[in-house]
Design brief:
The protein is α+β, with helices and mostly antiparallel strands. The chain has helices at 32-52, 69-75, 81-88, 92-99, 107-126; strands spanning 2-11, 14-18, 26-29, 61-67. The protein has two domains: 1-67, Double Stranded RNA Binding Domain (2-Layer Sandwich), CATH 3.30.160.250; 69-128. It has a four-stranded mixed β-sheet with strand order 3-2-1-4.
Length: 128
């Protein structure tokens, strides 16, 4: 099964996603789940077009969504990375490596971080 790496970035209106391996395939979404669903649909459509043109396409593939955490922390520069790592129960040194673009978080880790930030936001909203 071919793994296709998808980079997800924070935008002013939500999230954007693209893959360096298939130029021109991208999506926008208002949430993490929305951008993932939109990208999966756009990618499938792109592969259909490639197949119609006679190109070889992967029969089985897995999309791996990775949040560009360096870009995310630049967008939201109000977060103290060490404090956030402690709140999320993630190794602070590892979160700093994601922030500084020394490592790219896996889809599982990206999802955990996004969910933790959403939980934090909900906690703040419930105390307002």
């Amino acid at each position: 099964m071919k793994k296709i790496k998808i980079i997800v970035e924070k935008s002013k209106t939500g999230f954007s996603a693209y893959t360096p391996n298939y130029p021109g395939v991208f999506s926008l979404g208002t949430s993490w789940d929305h951008v993932r669903n939109e990208f999966a649909e756009a990618f499938a459509f792109h592969l259909e077009g490639m197949a119609e043109d006679g190109a070889l396409i992967p029969k089985k593939y897995q999309l791996e969504f990775c949040l560009d955490l360096g870009q995310f922390f630049k967008h939201y520069n109000v977060f103290n990375v060490t404090a956030l790592a402690t709140y999320l129960k993630i190794n602070p040194k590892l979160l700093h490596q994601y922030k500084d673009d020394h490592k790219i978080a896996s889809e599982k880790t990206s999802t955990k971080i996004i969910q933790g930030i959403q939980d934090f936001a909900n906690e703040l909203l419930s105390s307002a």
